[in-house]
Specification:
It is a single chain. This protein is an alpha+beta fold. It is 18% helix and 35% strand. The strands form 7 sheets. Strands 1-11-22-14-18 form a 5-stranded antiparallel β-sheet, with no helix packed on it. The radius of gyration is 23 Å and the shape is globular. The N and C termini lie far apart (63 Å). The relative contact order is 0.15. The N terminus is likely disordered.
């Protein structure tokens, strides 16, 4: 039986041998890049992220969402290495896991990419699952327990333990009443400096956003597997460099990937400056000893990059998010509001808006419909949202009121989610009305 420690020793031997023999043949094509997700990403005020290594399971993620904020979207990512060469194609090793008792099957977002040979041939695979509907992440502190992730592939030659899960992270988009441009790139991009292209480096990822007249400080999160710290891979650190460029100014973060979440997994958040007038940010992770400290450059598997850039609201009759309206009751232009045919006083509506949804779409729809109606009543352009407001009212009349326990993976949720998402876009100033000042 091949143990995890044996695997890591063989990886080190493999990469050291590759220094002397630089040729490396890719046996199967993988994504080898990140890109925009094929799912809708909710707008919001910003994001938080946290992770755990999964070499030893269960793994625990502790993540805190700002107090009083609404949770807009919760995305779970995980990645690992396994021997797809002995598996039927397509290979989906590691696609299933359990989080807080809930069985999850992920969507393969990158790979399998042939990365190295121990032997056997090891492939990297990345997965994503939208777990918003589970209701297990809310404002304040949250603890998530993950287990049951296996990248093992049964083989008479290599036994039943040649694979391993590097780790998992959650990225939470929240609304606290402020505005930000939140964007994501995800997939599977592997690099080790001594391998032949494209496995020698990663593909730079560029985010675009509107310029502003003053500098801003952004939040940039990177989810990365396979990089070990001296604790797990003696005798020394493994070298990496994160390169960030915005507005023609380049900055570097060196050797910050250190198995911070547990063996072979990092959730790294940095705070780059967005210069006045800048309209993009580009990030790349390098397998490189840029500081020349004598460290062996790391092998790495890049899974996700999430960027939140603050937006300064414009003057005029702009829109506010549910977080804005629930925290600014004095700004309400009405004293009562009709949702799904039911009339609510301001205090009744605020009580519902301050209730955690815990995965109930009827609460989420209520929040966004209230916000959209208040924005229109306050004078914001409604030309792009009037039909959606009517559809949301019909949905609430049919499946509401708030608190009706409308859960994911049923017909009511499937009908309501795109309506809610459009309201969310409008309330965040992404459609025909700008953010409020």
């Amino acid at each position: 039986m091949i143990t995890r420690r044996t695997i890591r020793l063989l990886i080190t031997i493999t990469v050291l041998v590759s220094l002397a023999i630089p040729t490396f043949t890719v046996l199967a094509e993988g994504t080898e890049t990140l890109g925009p997700p094929e799912i809708t990403i909710s707008p919001g005020s910003g994001h938080v992220a946290a992770g755990t290594g999964l070499i030893n399971q269960p793994g625990t993620i502790d993540i805190t969402v700002p107090a009083g904020a609404n949770v807009e979207q919760v995305l779970l990512y995980w990645e690992g290495h396994g021997n797809c060469g002995i598996m039927p194609q397509p290979c989906e090793l590691g696609k299933d896991l359990t989080i807080n008792g809930n069985q999850i099957t992920g969507t393969l977002i990158g790979g399998p990419t042939f990365f190295y040979t121990l032997p056997p041939n090891m492939f990297s695979l990345s997965y994503r699952a939208d777990i918003t509907g589970l209701g297990i992440v809310n404002a304040g502190p949250n603890t998530l327990t993950i287990s049951g992730v296996s990248f093992d592939a049964s083989s008479p030659t290599w036994g039943d333990d040649p694979g391993f899960a590097n780790g998992a992270s959650v990225v939470v988009i929240y609304d606290d009443g402020t505005f930000a441009d939140v964007d994501i790139r995800d997939g599977n991009d592997n690099a080790y400096f001594a391998f032949d292209p494209p496995l020698d480096t990663t593909v730079p990822q560029t985010f675009e956003f509107a310029a502003e007249g003053a500098d801003r400080v952004a939040d940039l999160t990177l989810l990365v597997g396979s990089v070990e710290s001296p604790e797990f891979s003696p005798p020394g650190p493994r070298a990496t460099r994160v390169v960030v460029t915005s507005g023609g100014i380049t900055s570097y973060v060196d050797n910050a990937l250190i198995s911070s979440d547990g063996e072979t997994w990092d959730t790294l958040t940095i705070n780059p400056t967005i210069p006045a007038g800048a309209t993009s940010l580009t990030v790349q992770i390098l397998s490189e000893d840029a500081l020349d400290i004598g460290a062996l450059p790391a092998s790495l598997s890049w899974v996700n990059a999430t960027l939140s850039v603050p937006i300064t609201p414009t003057n005029g009759a702009g829109v506010g998010t549910p977080g804005y309206w629930k925290n600014h009751s004095d700004a309400w232009p009405v004293e009562e509001i009709v949702i799904g045919g039911i009339t609510y006083t301001k205090s009744q509506a605020l009580e519902i808006m301050n209730t955690s949804p815990r995965g109930d779409m009827s609460y989420q729809m209520f929040w966004h419909l209230v916000a959209a109606k208040l924005n229109v009543a306050n004078g914001a352009d409604s030309s792009c949202i009037a039909d959606t407001i009517a559809a949301a009212d019909d949905w609430m009349a049919t499946y509401g009121p708030a608190g009706s326990n409308v859960r994911a993976n049923n017909g009511a949720w499937d009908i309501g989610e795109p309506i809610k998402n459009t309201l969310d876009q409008y309330n965040n100033g992404k459609l025909c009305a700008p953010p409020r000042d």
